Each structure stands twice: as C-alpha cells, then as structure tokens.
Amino acid sequence: MWIDSHCHLDAPEFDLDREAVVQRARDADVQMLVIPAVGAFDFEAARELAHRHDFAYALGIHPLYVMQAKEQDLTLLAELLARYATDPRLVAVGEIGLDFFVPGLSAERQQFFYREQLKLARRFDLPVLLHVRRSADQLLAGLSRIAVRGGIAHAFNGSDQQAQRFVERGFKLGFGGTLTFERSAQIRRLAAGLPESAVVLETDAPDIPPHWLYKTAEQRAAGELSGRNEPAELPRIAQSLADLRVWTLAQTARITSANVGAALPKLQALLDAHG
Asked: Distance between CA atoms of 236 and 229, rounded to whole angstroms?
C-alpha cells in the first residue's frame, strides 16, 4: 500500500472529476491520502473529503494565504482542533510554514501565523505539516522556541545540514515529483543519502508534476498545458526513489508508509484499526 502524505484533494482543479481521481489512486494501490487544509475557507472541506473517502486530514493556514487570513481564523482553528480532537482522521496541524520565495508576502505576518499555529500544535499534541520554501532556517528557529512533536517537512529542498536538523527534531522529509527530474541534483542526492527512516513520499497534487507531466516554458507559450498531478502518480514517482536507494518498489512502499505512520501517529493508529 502507498500513502500520499500530502495531497490537496480539495483543490478546485479536481472539482470536475474528484471521484475518478480517487478511484485512479485506489487502482494504483494508493490507499491513503493526507489532505492538508490551507485556510479557514477549506477546513471543513478537507475534513469532509477525508471522511467520505476514508482518508486523513490536517487543519492549518498556509503561508501563501496569511495575507487574506484574519486573526480570528486562528480562533476558529483552535476551536476545530478542540472539537475534532477525538476524530481519528485529524492527524496534524497543517499546512503551515513560511514562504520567502513568492514576492509580496509579509514576513512578519507569516511568522506570526507560523508561531501561533506551532503553539496550537503543541497545545493539542499534534505533529505539523510544514511548507518549506527558502525558509528552512527560519522554520527551524521557530521550532527551537516552540517545540512540537515533529511531523513532515513537505517538498523539502534545503541543504544537508538543514535536513539533518529537521531529522533531529523528529521530522520526516517529503519527496515528490521534483525527484523525477535529473536536473534536481540536490533533492535527488538528499533522497538517496538520508537515513531510510527520514524519507516519505507525496504528490502535492495537483501541484509539483513529475517530469512526464511537466511542460517547459516554451511548450506552455505554445499553448501546451502541464498535466495535472494526482495521487495515482505516486507509485511511478516512487520508482525514482527506489532507483536512487537501490530498493525494490515493495521495499519503497513498506519503508515510506512506515515513515508516514511514525511521523503521524494518529494516522498509524487509523491504519492499524483498519487492519
């Protein structure tokens, strides 16, 4: 069984064929998805989808949405984390973090929402799903002040030293479509060299398409559209990891699924309850 540790199944890109996307994932033996919310506007959507399809979800405010978020959204988040504390499908606080790549985002506002959500994760004893884009050192600084029970650094693209510091804090590192590009030398080297207990797989669907779905700028200018990523692509993405680690696909599924369960204990309990 494969676990997609980060899939935005609630995204509007899936509105026309979401049921078919889920069926294709199951046909590919991707039996579990973790659906992270990105703002107050989709807290309930993420939860509803997880319950409808026997998946898992996380609740949080994404750094790309903090400019439109209100401080009362944090109050709502706290209320829902309390209300759903016994929900076995609520496995993390996320997607939260910092993004210093996209222009026009207030670093101060991002830091405020990041710190407050770390506090909530600590209060409710939940791991976190971290958005890491040109922000690894700042995220680690926050974790040193507000310790949480670990989680997953999603779509990790930092240095060896930063990776080690996340691992030391109990985090797994998420790898997806970028792993399939030969030119992604640093990501591929990290995926190959990290302790096997530190690596998890994800799609970030509908984003971060693997190389077979990606179109160059020239192709896009000519009217060709990049293919939408979806969870059914995970086993083929996993083949890149298997090749790098010299694992079989069966080993890759077993190791990465176990790692997701270790990062998200409530998810492991959910899987155990379903046999």
From this structure: 12
- Per-residue pLDDT of 75-84, as tens digits, reads 999 999 999 9
Distance from C-alpha of 37 to C-alpha of 44, rounded to nearest angstrom: 9
Q: Quick one: DSSP state of residue 7?
A: -
CA distance 153 to 155: 7
Bridge partner list, 57: 35, 90
pLDDT digits (tens, 9 = 90+) for 158-181: 999 999 999 999 999 999 999 999
- Distance from chain centroid for Cα 272: 21
Q: Which are the contacts of 61, defined by CB distance < 8 A and separation ≥ 6?
A: 37, 38, 39, 40, 69, 73, 74, 77, 96, 113, 117
Q: How far apart are the C-alpha atoms of 78 and 100, rounded to whole Å?
A: 26
Tens of pLDDT, residue by residue over 75-125, are 999 999 999 999 999 999 999 999 999 999 999 999 999 999 999 999 999
Nearest to 72 by CA among 113, 121, 108: 113
Q: Which two tokens stand for residue 196?
A: 């096997």
Tell me the sheet residues that pair with 263: none
Percent of the chain with pLDDT over 70: 100
CA separation (Å) from 249 to 4, 54, 234, 257?
A: 15, 24, 11, 12
Alpha-carbon span 267 to 161, nearest angstrom: 28
CB atoms near residue 160 (< 10 Å): 12
Two tokens at 210?
Answer: 């693997």
Tokens, residue 71: 């401080």
What tokens appear for 174 in the block? Answer: 């998420």
Could you give the 3-state DSSP secondary structure of residue 201?
strand
Per residue in 36-77, pLDDT (tens digit) is 999 999 999 999 999 999 999 999 999 999 999 999 999 999
